C-alpha cells in the first residue's frame, strides 16, 4: 500500500478554465470551470462529502500487475460506489488514476516496449468498460528523472511516455478522457514530457 493513500479526499479543487486540448476550437467563453477531486478513501467515507459540487472525481491509485493495469477487489467496490454517485450528479465524470508516488517502479521497463504499452492500453480499456469509468489519469513519477529512491529511470522515458499516450488514445478512441499528473518543478517541465506531442492527445494536465 502506497503511503500516499492514507489521504482520504484530496480536494484539489482546480477552479481553472478547462484546458481541453482536444477542443481548442471552442471559444474562451464556452470553456467550463472544472472542480476535480482525487479520492483514496473507502466506499463509505465518500458519503461525507458534497460530491454533487464536483465535475470530476478520480480514484487513486491502481497499479501494474505485469504489463496490465490491475484493480483489486476492494478498489473495484470503491469504483462502483463512485460511479453510483452519478444518480445524484448526472454530469459527474468518474476516472481512475494509475501509479502515484512509489506506484510506478516498473513503468520504465513496461512502457519501453510496444508490447508492454499495448497490453497496458488494452487492460485500461477493459477496466474502464467493466466499471463504467470515464477516463484514466496517468501518474508516472517520473519519466526521465529521479522519482522515489531505487526506481529506475532513463532519458528514453520521455519518448516512451509519448508513445504510451499515443497508444492509449488509439486504443480508447475519443470517448474516454486521458489526463496525466505533472510535476510543477523545472526538471520535470523540461526533461520529462514532449509537450508539443503529448498535449494534443490528452484532455487535461493535472
Q: How many helices?
A: 6
User: How much helix is in the residues?
Assistant: 25-40%
If you average the pLDDT, what whole number results? 89
Please tell me how large the radius of gyration is.
16 Å
Return the structural class: alpha/beta
Question: What global shape is seen?
Answer: globular
Strand content: 15-25%
Largest sheet: 8 strands, mixed
Describe the structure.
With 206 residues, the chain is α/β, with parallel strands linked by helices. The protein has 6 helices and 10 strands; from the N terminus they run E-E-E-E-E-E-H-E-H-H-E-H-E-H-H-E. It has helices spanning 73-84, 107-110, 114-131, 157-172, 186-191, 195-198; strands at residues 9-10, 16-17, 33-34, 36-39, 56-65, 68-70, 93-99, 135-139, 177-180, 204-205. The strands form 2 sheets. Strands 1, 4, 5, 6, 7, 8, 9 and 10 form an 8-stranded mixed sheet that branches. Strands 2-3 form a two-stranded antiparallel sheet. A hairpin with a 2-residue loop joins strand 5 (56-65) and strand 6. Helix 3 packs across helix 4 (157-172).
Concise summary:
By secondary structure, this protein is α/β, with parallel strands linked by helices.
Amino acid at each position: 500500500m502506497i503511503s500516499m493513500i492514507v489521504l482520504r479526499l484530496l480536494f484539489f479543487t482546480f477552479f481553472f478554465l478547462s484546458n481541453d486540448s482536444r477542443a481548442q476550437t471552442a471559444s474562451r467563453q464556452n470553456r467550463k470551470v472544472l472542480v476535480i477531486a482525487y479520492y483514496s478513501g473507502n466506499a463509505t467515507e465518500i458519503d461525507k462529502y458534497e460530491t454533487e459540487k464536483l465535475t470530476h472525481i478520480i480514484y487513486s491509485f491502481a497499479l501494474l500487475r505485469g504489463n496490465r493495469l490491475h484493480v483489486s477487489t476492494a478498489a473495484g467496490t470503491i469504483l462502483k460506489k463512485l460511479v453510483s454517485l452519478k444518480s445524484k450528479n448526472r454530469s459527474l465524470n468518474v476516472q481512475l488514476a494509475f501509479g502515484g508516488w512509489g506506484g510506478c517502479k516498473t513503468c520504465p521497463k513496461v512502457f519501453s516496449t510496444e508490447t508492454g504499452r499495448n497490453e497496458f492500453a488494452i487492460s485500461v480499456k477493459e477496466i474502464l468498460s467493466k466499471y463504467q469509468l470515464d477516463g484514466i489519469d496517468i501518474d508516472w513519477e517520473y519519466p526521465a528523472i529521479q522519482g522515489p529512491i531505487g526506481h529506475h529511470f532513463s532519458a528514453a522515458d520521455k519518448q516512451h511516455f509519448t508513445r504510451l499516450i499515443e497508444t492509449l488514445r488509439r486504443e480508447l478512441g475519443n470517448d474516454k478522457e486521458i489526463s496525466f499528473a505533472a510535476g510543477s518543478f523545472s526538471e520535470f517541465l523540461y526533461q520529462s514530457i514532449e509537450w508539443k506531442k503529448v498535449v494534443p492527445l490528452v484532455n487535461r494536465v493535472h
